[in-house]
Amino acid sequence: MKKLAVLMLVVAFSLTALFGATLTVGAKNFTEQYVLGNLASLLLEENGFNVVERFGLSSFVARQGLTTGQIDLYPDYTGTAWVTYLDQEEIINDPDELLEKVRELDAENGVVWLDRINANNTYALAIRQEDYEKYGFETLSDLVAYWNEHPNEFVVGVDYEFYERPDGFFAFADHYGLDIQDSQVSTMQLGLTYEAISNNKIDIAMVFATDPKILRYNLHVLEDDQNFWPYYHISYAVRKDVLDEYPEIEEILRPLTQYLNQDILIRLNYRVDVDGVEPEVVARDYLQGLGLIE
């Protein structure tokens, strides 16, 4: 039976190479997503697929593209699916359990989640290192306690999506009991919070845990001590009908699960954001280094 399964996979690979099926790969609109989108595209192209790329999308547009058939697969985050797409409120502190529950619920939407990559790109709030030394904040609870006593001292910078999404800034504020006015929240394009906090235009910045700009701008990330934000482990979400037709996709992308981790992803992101290398080049160099593409 095992030999038959292997033979079927080999035949599937051969047919793909022969006819060059086309897949549309999506990605959201920030560095890590461009890297992950290119990693998937390059692996699929190496294994005979023609790839159309739809990168630079918001979470909602990417998700809608997947569920309506405009996108065949793209990298996403288990926490985003659980809270935003599936409208769940339960806090799950086991990343594997979270993935399984996302898989179970999203199967009803015709979406399959592949194995997760060991990188947790959760939301976080960060302050300047000098402010950390001044105030001694270690946790979000420390920040909120001080902020409520000094309501006019801080301005926080967030991107537009984080301002609006149900697991975003105001949901955090409600959960932690932060009394804040809209005037204390400055919205800006994704990624500009780092420059804004560096230039003292804001005091607290929304960041992502795998973003190398945390190191570049010498920021201190505050611990989410009340576990408000769920795990945001990365997994490629694939339309079920596409995976049923091309089951080899799972094996083609499996090396990303095996080799990528949080430290490696931060380094890949660093090459883009700090060194100025194009995401496609970063992805190609990484895969060539592993011997996965020529």
Q: What is the topological layout?
A:
Blueprint: H1 2-19, E1 22-28, H2 31-46, E2 50-57, H3 59-67, E3 73-77, H4 78-85, H5 95-106, E4 111-113, E5 117-120, E6 123-128, H6 129-135, H7 140-149, E7 156-159, H8 160-164, H9 169-176, E8 185-188, H10 192-198, E9 204-208, H11 213-216, E10 219-221, E11 233-239, H12 240-245, H13 248-259, H14 262-273, H15 279-289
List keywords for this structure.
294 residues; alpha/beta; D-Maltodextrin-Binding Protein, domain 2; 2 domains; 5-stranded mixed sheet; 4-stranded antiparallel sheet; 11 strands; globular; disordered N terminus
Can you characterise this structure?
38% of the residues are buried. The protein is globular. Helix 2 packs across helix 13, helix 2 packs across helix 15 and helix 14 packs across helix 15. The chain is 49% helix and 19% strand. With 294 residues, it is of the alpha/beta class. The N terminus is likely disordered. The strands form three sheets. It has a five-stranded mixed sheet. Strands 3, 4, 5 and 11 form a four-stranded antiparallel sheet that branches. The protein has 15 helices and eleven strands. It folds into two domains: 176 residues, Periplasmic binding protein-like II (D-Maltodextrin-Binding Protein, domain 2, 3-Layer(aba) Sandwich); 99 residues, D-Maltodextrin-Binding Protein, domain 2, CATH 3.40.190.120.
